[in-house]
Amino acid sequence: MASAPGxxxxxxxxxxxxxxxxVGLVRTAxxxxxxARHRGGTFVFRxxxxxxxxxxxxxxxxxxxxxxxxxxxxxxxxxxxxxxSGAGGGPHAPYRQSQRMDLYKDVAEKLLAAxxxxxxxxxxxxxxxxxxxxxxxxxxxxYDGHCRDLSAARVEExxxxxRTPIVRFRMPDETITFxxxxxxxxxxxxxxxxxxxxxxxxxAPLYTLVNPVDDALMEITxxxxxxxxxSSTPRQIALYKALIELGIAKEIPSFGHLPYVMxxxxxxxxxxxxxxxxxxxxxxxxxPEGLLNYLSLLGWSLSADQDIxxxxxxxxxxxxxxxxxxxxxxxxxKCEAIxxxxxxxxxxxxxxERCRPWLRAPFAPWAPEDFDEAKWQRIxxxxxxxxxxxxxxxxxxxxxxxxxxxxxxxxxxKAMKEGSDALLATAREKLEAADWSSPEALKEAVLAAGEVHxxxxxxxxxxxxxxxxxxxxxxxxxxxxxxxxxxxxxxxxDAALARLxx
Length: 502
Description:
With 502 residues, the protein is mainly α. The protein has helices at 23-38, 57-70, 101-113, 124-136, 152-160, 207-217, 233-245, 278-284, 288-296, 311-317, 332-345, 348-354, 373-384, 393-401, 409-415, 420-432, 439-452, 457-469, 477-484, 486-501, and strands at 10-13, 42-45, 117-120, 166-169, 176-180, 184-188, 196-199, 222-226, 254-258, 261-262, 328-329.
C-alpha cells in the first residue's frame, strides 16, 4: 500500500543492529507500519547504530532481511525495500546514525551555546557517592546538578586535573504534562526528571540526543514505541522545546507507548528468551502473515469475535488510540494456532511453493533425486489441513520419498501389540485385492481386515499406518496409501511382518 502524497503522518521504526531481531521489536514495527498505512502516511526505517561496541553489519543485514520477509515496505530508509520498487533513500538521508555524527556534534554545540546544555566534570565515583547519600536521606537519586553553574575558576581547576567532561542537557524547572496516545494524560514533576547526559566524554553522542534530533530533522509526527521508553519522554519533550527554539525542530511529536510483551512467569519477554527470536519462527516455518496476525493481538484487536485477519484488514482498521495499555502475554500455542489458520487460507499452489525450503537439504532426509514432484503435488492438499508450521511438512511426507519409512520406535511399540502380525497379514491380503485407484476402497479393505479380528477401523489401521509411514500420527492414511502406490505399500507391510515374526 503506497503512502498518500503530502500526507502529514510520519512514523519511524528505528532499531539498533545488535543480535537477532525479536518479536517485541517486530510488534513495534508492525504497529508503526500499520498506522502509517492506515493514515496514508510515511513509514521511515532508520538504523540506530551509534554503539560501535555492540552494533554489527551482520545484525544490520539481518534487520533488512527481516523487514523484507515480514513485508514491511518502507518509504524512506537505508536501503531499497526491493529491487522492483526502488524504495529506499529519501529526503532525509542518510538513515544510519553512524553516518550522521557531524550533525549531532553541531546540534550539541548549539545547545551548549544557547545554555540548554552544559559540560559536566563529575567523576563516576563522585556521582555514586552523592547518589548513595541522596538515597540515604530519602531524596531523589538522579543527577543533582553539581556542574550546572560552574565558575570559570572551577572549570579551569577540573581541566587542570585532566578531567574530560560529558555534556548534559539542562532540564527546565517545570512540570511536564503530555497526552500519551495509548495511556492518556501523564505528568512528570521536575524532581523526577533530572539533567541527563547527551554526549559521552569521548565526544560520542548518546541515544538521548540522536534519537530526538533525528525525529526532529525527519519531521516525525508520531513516536510509537515500547513502554520501557516512557520514562525518557519528558526529557525528550524538554529537548524538543529547545530544538524548536534553535530552529532545528518544527514541533513536538505525539507519543504513544505500547504495552509490554510478557513471557513465562509474567516477566517481560527479553531478547534472551528463546521464544523471542524472530529467526526461530522463520526456521520453524511460520508464515509472515500468521506471525504478524498474532503479534497484532498483543495489545490490539480487530474485533471482539475475529482473531484471524489479513494485513490489509488490519491496516484498514488500525488506530493507535485502540491499543490497550495493559501488558500482553505471549502465548506460543495460540501463535501456532493462528499460523495454522493462515496456512489453510493459502491456495494449494501457494502452499506447495511455501513448503519448498523444507523439502530440500538441509531439512529433507532424502536425496534430491528421490523427491517425486507428482507425489508432492498429490499429497499437498492433504498436508495443508494438518500443519501448524511449514517445517512439519518434512516429517509428514518423508515416507513418500525415503526408500523405507523412518520408523519412530515409540509409535512402533504403541501400534504393534500382540496379534498385530495376524492383523497385518490379513490387511495385506485385503489390500492386495483392493482397488488402488480409490482411497475409499483401501479404507474398506482395512476395515474388513479389522472385522476379521474383531477390531474397529481405528485399531485396525494403526499397525498399517506405522508399517507404511513409520508413525502413528500423520496425513490421511488411505490417501497416503494410494499416492505411495500398491507395490511399495505392500513391500513395507511385508518388512513390518518380517520384523514382527523375527
